[in-house]
């Protein structure tokens, strides 16, 4: 068996990402572990294999680290298989330049057997401790205290995990909040600084006449409108994008990699879909959208300001429309 064949059937998954995190190559082991064909896996964005929590891990740790350090070792992540079931992996990755293009080699080591083994060891340890306590009654109280401390530690870990999710999530709509948007914005600006071909755009979306909806139908109906619009936007944008609640009845969308004509097409689809949606107990809802794209010399404030000005223009021109900052 030659070297290429050994790599295809290596005892661990192997995949290659381009700088935009799209899969350009996988080995047979990776395909067999997750149940995909090569045609299904190659060409997909890495986040296509991730559920929301693990996408958040990629945004907050993987992307900044690989761009700054060019290397990641033993990054714990869960990938979805073809049936949508998550499996744990340890990922190590390294960034290279090949033919003047940036690529990222990734090695994935499955963790199922290791976790099962650790669980078995843990159960054995508990059984040994219990046997010891039965023989050494004098240590019973100490054993109870030890177990209570361990339980409290597990509770604390769960609470910490919940706090992280709560701190990054809008409580009403369930989508990311402004805090997580600001983290995503910093990440995109760093990536643009490293490679100006990696541009991104913003949508500022505001519900038209939202105060009238609250005044006429009540705040419960107003809240249901916010929730439904948040869900619709999340479903309409590409997987690598992110929608966040920016404040009140205003949402903000950040989309990497899109060209100008494509980003306008996505914004127009959001505008039209909300207008045509079936609104229970309400005659209709529309939104105005301001669009801007990140350019050389921009900062976080300048791109947001241009999107905000475009939104203001859409409102001034009669609402229920999309305006690009260059219009």
Describe the structure.
- The protein has 327 residues and is α+β, with helices and mostly antiparallel strands.
- It is built from eleven helices and ten strands.
- The strands form two sheets. It has a five-stranded antiparallel β-sheet. The protein has a five-stranded mixed β-sheet with strand order 7-8-6-9-10, sandwiched between helices.
- Helix 4 (52-69) runs parallel beside helix 7.
- It starts with a helix and ends with a strand.
The description of the largest β-sheet is: 5 strands, antiparallel
Give the helix tally: 11
Strand order of the largest sheet: 2-1-5-4-3
- What structural class results from the helix and strand content? alpha+beta
Secondary structure tally: strands: 10
Beta-sheet strand percentage?
Answer: 15-25%
Secondary structure: helix percent: 40-55%
In terms of per-residue confidence, which ranges show pLDDT below 50 for 5 or more consecutive residues?
A: none
End-to-end gap: 60 Å
**Element order: H for helix, E for strand:** HEEHHHEEEHHHEHHEEHEHE
Question: How do the helices and strands line up, and which of them pair or pack?
Answer:
Elements: H1 3-8, E1 13-18, E2 23-26, H2 28-34, H3 38-41, H4 52-69, E3 71-80, E4 86-98, E5 101-110, H5 112-135, H6 140-167, H7 178-194, E6 200-207, H8 210-217, H9 219-236, E7 242-247, E8 250-256, H10 260-276, E9 287-293, H11 300-316, E10 322-324
Parallel strand pairs: 9-10
Antiparallel strand pairs: 1-2, 1-5, 3-4, 4-5, 6-8, 6-9, 7-8
Helix pairs in contact: 4-7, 8-9, 9-10
